[in-house]
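Action item from last week, closing it out:
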Amino acid sequence: MSQLIKKILYISLFVVTLVIALLFFVKNYQVLEFNYILGVIELPLSILMLIGFIFGLIIGIFAMLPMIFRLKHTQNHLKKQIRINEKEITNLRVMPARDSD
């Protein structure tokens, strides 16, 4: 039941965000002149803001990549250590106990 509620919540949040974005695009359709290094282009304000958001998202993803790779490396190292420890525990359980006379 919890999964269903979570799905409904995510879908409704997505729909609300989509409606707000569409309203934003409709209300901000003023055409602006965008000067970039290679030339000039005229685009609506909402499209320019969307392009800026997408570039920011891409730059953020690239900024996070080194940390993600480092965490993956640490995770693989720890998984290997767990396998070694589990193998050692299994071997210790199988070994016969010594009598301390």
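Closing note: The chain has one domain: 2-94.
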